């Protein structure tokens, strides 16, 4: 169940990169074009997703018997 | 002053190579895999420093000058999620192969995994071919940088030659340990100086908001994506960073990790480092229109350096240019990988090491690497495509090969014939696209779908079909690589 949730999280996260809703938006937020700011935060969120995966869905590789 | 800073920078790099040589343990594993001793910080910085090339600063800023801030969404944010996934789920598997079998190259692994000598040779040839354009990006980037900082006194050809000489020297003395330390030093340089450059230059324009406001008044299309990047292009760009899974130089660095747990640290911090490098590159590339409107053709390639030159004094120009060169000099890991592949996949595997003295072997290895770099240097004199386009073609080829690695690691039914057919499919399709009107960074004409999507899908399909149509691998081989 946990694995399924994390797979769905990654899939949803990949889709969130396609911010078509701001494709034609030239508005500035905090001094940056809104799409650029969104993608900068997307990278920060990617760090959080990687941490979650490393914490809850990662196994050390086994050695040869 | 600028030249003095750069001389000091090169001296530090050569010093790192010399110091690493003092710790050399005299074995191939130590030279090519640093005896698997890289800790979490050096591993992160080495991987990041290696992955960021002239493409990330000079190429990205030039592309942003042409296409606006949307370039960040193409490459940076796709890498931010795709590369950590590779670091979490592919890199530790590769690391374990090095620990259990002593592999240092991809061809060694494929040769053993599929019990096929010919497959190992095929991969050696294909990976070397794909590495050439990637090396070319660094060689060309070095030439552009030197020509700019010397005010034209040095030609791009002479600049590239200096860069290659420095890199070849510290790589041949320091091996993987020296290269990883040099990458760490370089990554710290270009990661920290990007933000300084952005905020200082934006300050000269009255602040970030004022600068982007002025750009919006002149060229509003550069603040969005609607007119510059097709939705299918954005979507299929997700596949480009998968190339990192097949880069020979990253494969080697993964093997050099001290523990597989270090990849968890790398995967978390990698996206944060990306923002620090790509945000200033893209923002300054687009904003360069304020100082240098209407640039065309090759003049765009050095737009980042033009901005630095205009807005900083000699000392900072030297430091930031050293930071740019730090990214350009990712060439070091690629050179080391080429040397490793030649030594282990050809010379040692085919038994030449029994017929040659150790000194002759070293000379042969160095001659091969110098030959490869010289070939790229000559090519840089004649080829004129953008850094971005060359890099994306190379990435397309490496990404197309990723299904072979994934199948080798996770699919017992994959066969040597399937892997070979998939590899040849990548070569054939790359050749087809190179000779057609398709553009690697703009997608297929009329669609926007990048060639990488077609190449990966075809390579994956051919791999599965041919594997299922050929005899399953031998049980003894499978038990070796899938013990449970």
Descriptive tags:
heterodimer; A: 65 residues; mainly alpha; two-stranded antiparallel ribbon; 2 strands; B: 484 residues; 22 helices; globular
What does this structure look like?
The complex is a heterodimer of chains A (65) and B (484). Chain A is elongated and about 50 Å long. In chain A, α1 (2-16) runs antiparallel to α2. Chain A is mainly alpha-helical and 65 residues long. Chain A has two helices and two strands. In chain A, 58% of the residues lie in helices and 6% in strands. Chain B has 484 residues and is an all-alpha fold. Helix content of chain B is 75%, strand content 0%. Chain B is built from 22 helices and no strands. Chain B has helices at 2-22, 28-33, 40-51, 54-67, 70-89, 91-101, 106-113, 117-149, 156-204, 208-218, 231-236, 248-255, 262-287, 303-311, 314-328, 331-348, 352-355, 358-382, 387-410, 416-434, 451-469, 475-481. Classes of the chains: A mainly alpha (65), B mainly alpha (484). Chain A binds chain B through residues 10, 13-14, 17-20, 22-26, 28, 31-33, 35-36, 39-40, 42-44, 46-47, 49-51, 53-55, 58, 60-65, and chain B through 69-70, 72-73, 76-78, 80-81, 84-85, 87-89, 92-93, 95-96, 99-100, 207-209, 212-213, 216, 220, 223-226, 229, 231, 234-235, 238, 260-261, 264, 267-272, 274-275, 279, 282-283, 483-484.
